[in-house]
Design a protein that fits this description.
The structure is a homohexamer.
Chain A: H1 4-14, E1 27-31, E2 39-43, H2 48-57, E3 61-64, E4 76-77, H3 81-92, E5 95-98, H4 101-105, H5 110-117, E6 121-125, E7 139-146, H6 148-159, E8 165-167, E9 173-178, H7 187-192, E10 197-200, H8 205-214, E11 217-220, H9 223-227, H10 230-241, E12 246-249, E13 257-259
Parallel strand pairs in A: 2-3, 2-12, 3-5, 9-10, 10-11
Antiparallel strand pairs in A: 1-5, 6-7, 7-9, 8-11
């Protein structure tokens, strides 16, 4: 019978702990290694709705990208959303595992899936960390040269975004970097690597202007939409590795933010 | 004849230095107090294009909200946009004055103008700092109760945004807080003050979700569009105070970020 | 019907939050304000055994002196004692309230009870913090002048310690200071207040020698035994304030440390 | 004729400076390298009574484990015990040498002597620092399997303690770690090394409970009694190395703390 | 009979402890409050030569401006000058008192004496700290308007300097500030107070250029020569207050630095 | 045609960037890499007078040792000397390059030139940093044994100082260390290297006394005079490397500080 510890070990084989940033919180954050698992719910975030969905499904484990606990908790009460989530998981006997920056950086993880989803060719790691298995945060690759407008259409459609925010760097699109989530701090690295276009999220006003001044096409496709493509890939891998476990992708989880 | 020092003194009478945050950089950041001024260019940002416009206009002064120098400069070269701007201003004999967080916080400043532009009633300071003239960052006021969707339309139209990003807190709109620029850190204050809706900018993924969990309608109307309404107001005040000076609003400055 | 929030409000009326140290964690640390309470378990510590006792008792609330969570939690798993405790509380629907340094410092709290238990007269706060209700950490009072050896007997008997550790300061006992738990850092304050004897806990080697060199009788009566006297007092107060609630003192909780 | 510098060199050959912690203060802390030495007094601590004993003995040098100066001195006056000690040493022409964490960590030092005194077999360094001569803080070794109670008797007798404080981890004693002085912070290391029992000193309330929860027999045998066994060993080594010098162990130095 | 504590109390009546900077070390730094005093040696610094002079004189106390111990001492050995000084004082039974920044700042202290020595009129504190007795670091006063060259002659002669270093600020001398020792960091305060000339010591290259650019005559008259004038004043005060004590000014202490 | 970037590249070939300290600011600090250069002005400091001289000369570049901007600039206005300098350079189209601690440390840089100027033999780096090209801050070498007085004459004459400040260490001069500018913090390194004499600048009172106590002849020959010898050497190198560029040494720059 499959246990939480088996699935944890598997996830940390495809997204090793040493690839996580120092400040990050990854692994088993709630529950018990010895828990038997028959059903797993996979989602980008372990939000309250996802926890409820897992309870209704009868899952014993949720696997997510973002951690259940990010700021270490001083209390666990139903005054806060995170408190309610932990209380529900404990009450229902559900464990929670996550792979965050380790999944961002590992080969085949968040950013490789994002790059493939956008149809990039010759995908490479931007500034890889050397080692047995090189890894790194951002990816880059090429597309057939095209006007920015055409590429924006591709991004929106392939990531299923409602909307995009972007700045036009004044160049056609040929070499594209991607960083799922809030990676706009990597702008200089991406330029130094020769890219003309950068797809990321959570971009701030002055960062759009920096891109403008540096001549970089900068596209904010949303935190959810740039990271969520990894969810079905991760679910499929777990399902393949554990044939006796029913793996389901959250139906309720989506982006709460909308465009108008 | 009007000098830079006269206009500086006037601006610091309507947006006093003590209202600026400690980390901020405000006042005369480039040029000379003794410079005679016949033409002023007013804009949200002292970006390179604005500096060029001032030079072409023959202005001796630019007045902006954002500071010319934010991170103290280790060099002034044409390798960077900020270096090119300073070089151009020095070469052309143009001074640069700004009022940043002091203009955000002062009565009649960025946030009062934003609240009025959105048509709020009974406008008040959220958590005012006591003193002879109370001040503070955010404002709040009321609108006739309405569905969020209707209010989104008002925001978009009155601020002339291309697009908006928002999360639906599940409540009708009645009591609205505003914080021009990146004020999403003030979400808890706004809720404690009894608001149901908050208009600000540069909101991040987890902040949208926090608003969702807390039941707050959170609207990101863009940094530029939430702050720019103060520009014509500021220009009109300077023009009224200095009848011998030609005051012009930048024609080239706009938001570089677009929606798709 | 009594709710967790009622008992929390009562406890914070006798041990106000502003009397807690900044670094402390007090109040409702687990569960729900709206929980109905019929049975309360009171103990010095919310350790695993106490949580289990509460579950077996059918209590909906535990009230303790030490906090359930001291180092903010990065995870809630059964790998650690604290994780197991939180999981058990959530599973069983038990809330947890504590009053720590606020209960140490408040009039009638840990240290007043300790001073009374030792039979001190004319009990006063050492270095009181001024205010409507003065408060402070340590207490001092007098006993009839006696040799140290006799006083040691009184301490051991009244606090029901197995053993004591002490240093003889070379003086008879007349003016005694008390600080339940680890208060040996207050030795200089106690001397400046004219005391000859100090009862506290968790004393270290060099602190015994400091006392020796300063001529202070220093008695380490154990952390548990110097703080536990407050438990029945606290239980009685809650029982009196909430006649409809059954209040029980933990039967399993004791000091794990023994003398040989 | 033997000089202070000769004895210093010898002590630093058996307890090399590089084995001391960065925060420590070791070596010649008072007096003169060129002082001729005919008599040495050896003690655990260079307290005032020990200095007086050295003066009465006519010793020109005291050698101790703990440093004469730990917190760097802002003054040297007879208002403090340390000031009186330094004044006495200077007045009487007595030098002071110590070996502290270097003597704790070196092979044959404080912790090896402690392990041997307790009768451990197959003594090894816990987590040795690699190098020509591996060293480290704690030692571990085996004893014939026995109930905790029997081992407590051995500890008390062999270290000549008045009393002990301990927590019962619920296991028989077989593999024992030792750390003279305040080493309870090493509890996790000791468990990871497979030990069931740990003898150290200056243990605090929460550390006893941690040991209890982790199933470790934890014995606080007192700072003095866990370190003092090294004193006769050190004295004997110096006497052997310097046949022309009279080496004496302090008769007055003992533990000031007592049990009741 | 006069004791060290009597003289300490007197010195702290004329240079109160609260006027010393937080980082400073003042008062009784070596010896014993109860020591009887028949002879005192007064000097600017408690250097080794001064300690030797005190011993030869048979003094029981030295009173200085600079502290015996500035960096707290980790050892007291004859390897260092400060160690040799402390050893000598302890051996000879000599106590050491100093008044440093409290003597700089108090009315009638280092800087008032310096101002009077230079012949300033209408002497005032620059930026006084308010209180019962206002105090502050620097003094300022006027001289009859004169060319810098003439004033340099006055400084050299009245302070008995071998040489001076100065920068010509391009102004005649009329309003002069003084700060004995290393006070060049106060340059902006002195200018804001309307001074044209500043006498201090330990001035660095860039500070000379700052003075040059700011149009301030800056004179470095040496640390010793700007502070030493207080020595005979202090000696005379002690002699007057304690008629039974022989007070002597050090004959050996001088500036070690020379001009060529 | 020579550009600023060509001269920058050349300077960083003789004083590589990696030889600069972390806190330093070196390279192109003002202007444009693409600027064509026909005339260069070389000086120790880029002070206002030097900038004016460059403008009058029609130079497009100034090359200095000290950086134009040391404390990063929060503004560029004519209220400050540095603001006026930057404004003048920008207005006149003059770029500014500097090599500071990289020029101090590189072979053939500030300190090698200083050592040669003083006539030292067998010049070596004190504590060289290993690498392809070893480098370091201070230099040392020998002179024929002579009394200090004779060597002082040599220093004064060869560096063209108005005056010197020194302390006599009580030894003849044989092995001399040099550190141009404020290097007195290197006193212990210099002694450990076996030197009897140290020529540097900006020495403070207590450092002169430290040298006195340590028996080191310490000579403060002024910041300007110990660093300025590198200026003609640097000018000559640039002139040789760029025959089409007119290289001139500043005529106006000198030390503002004088002796009296």
């Amino acid at each position: 019978m499959t246990k939480v510890s088996d699935i944890l070990k598997y996830i940390e084989s495809i997204a090793p702990r040493h690839m996580a940033e120092n400040w990050d919180n990854v692994g088993l954050l709630c529950g018990s290694r010895n828990q038997t698992v028959t059903k797993v719910l996979v989602a980008l975030d372990p939000f309250e709705g996802v926890c409820r969905e897992a309870a209704e499904l009868g899952a014993e484990l949720i696997v997510t990208h973002h951690p259940l606990i990010f700021m270490p908790a001083k209390s666990v009460t139903d005054d806060t959303s995170i408190g309610r989530s932990i209380m529900m998981l404990c009450r229902e006997g559900i464990s929670a595992i996550n792979a965050h920056t380790n999944l961002d950086q590992t080969p085949g993880g968040v950013n490789d899936v994002l790059a493939r989803t956008l149809g990039l060719h010759d995908i490479q790691i931007v500034n890889p960390v050397a080692g047995d298995v090189p890894y790194g945060l951002m990816r880059m690759g090429t597309v057939p040269e095209q006007p920015l407008d055409r590429f924006l259409g591709t991004v929106k459609e392939s990531l299923r975004c409602d909307g995009l925010r972007f700045v036009d760097g004044g160049k056609p699109v040929r070499k594209v970097a991607v960083g799922g989530g809030a990676c706009s701090g990597g702008m200089m690295e991406v330029l130094d690597a020769g890219c003309d276009t950068f797809v990321t999220a959570d971009v701030k006003y002055n960062q759009f202007w920096d891109a403008h001044d540096l001549g970089l096409n900068l596209i904010d496709a949303g935190h959810f939409h740039t990271e969520n493509p990894v969810v079905p890939v991760l679910a499929a891998k777990i399902a393949e590795a554990f044939p006796d476990v029913a793996v389901k992708i959250s139906e309720t989880h989506h982006d709460c933010m909308k465009y108008y």
